[in-house]
Structure prediction request, 250 residues.
Amino acid sequence: MDNWIRCFRPAPDAAAQLLCFPHAGGSASGYIPLSTQVAGTAEALVVQYPGRHDRIAEPFAERLGDVVHAVLGSLSADGGRPLILFGHSMGALLAYETARQLAAQGREPAALFVSGSEGPSLPRRARLPDRPSDADLIREMRLLSGTDEELLTHPEILELALPPLRADYAMLFSRVHVPGPPLRCPIVALTGDNDPRVSVEGVQAWERETEGPFERHVLPGGHFFLGDHLPLVADLIAAYVPGRTVRTGV
Prediction:
């Protein structure tokens, strides 16, 4: 692996690989629990964005396409096992764009899992100013409940957390959806039933992005619902490892 990919639980004998993209402001370590949960079924590879953790000295990525291009370059030397893509929030859009590029190269993934994100063809909602202040970002973090409330009062923690979050939102704000051929692989869309930023109807819009099977799962929780449902999510992923029975339906 190179600077872009982390593997917390190597599983060279697993039948498939699961490529995971973190949310805005997130880092690869956030996928350690899922990496552990899927061990034995798939080998989890997690993207580490620049400008955080062990890449903190590197400049932030400026465009989603730059991240996709770099990640695809990191995958080129892999041994060729079936690949399942998984992304949460901003990571869902990155996983989707990566799937589109792979499909264009004749390397369509086995499945695409999109979590905590409305369909990419929907207009972007004005959730924050284009140049959000620290106060704007803190309000957003508090709304999404992805950060312990006590941590939001520590200036030294905010000094580390806010720059990558601001940079990632800038990437999202600059994104323009370019229509193209639908994928052929299955898409599985996951959302929390109490997400303040993602509607169930908006999640359903992912169905139009594939000619293959589509599943939508609405689970209890807010924007960061995944941590409470890892066994279920691991089971859903396992169902799309080639050689296993594929689910269909909502």
Remarks:
- The CA atoms of residues 226 and 232 lie 9 Å apart.
- Confidence is low (pLDDT under 50) at residues 245-250.
- Helices lie at 32-38, 64-75, 90-104, 134-144, 155-174, 200-204, 230-238.
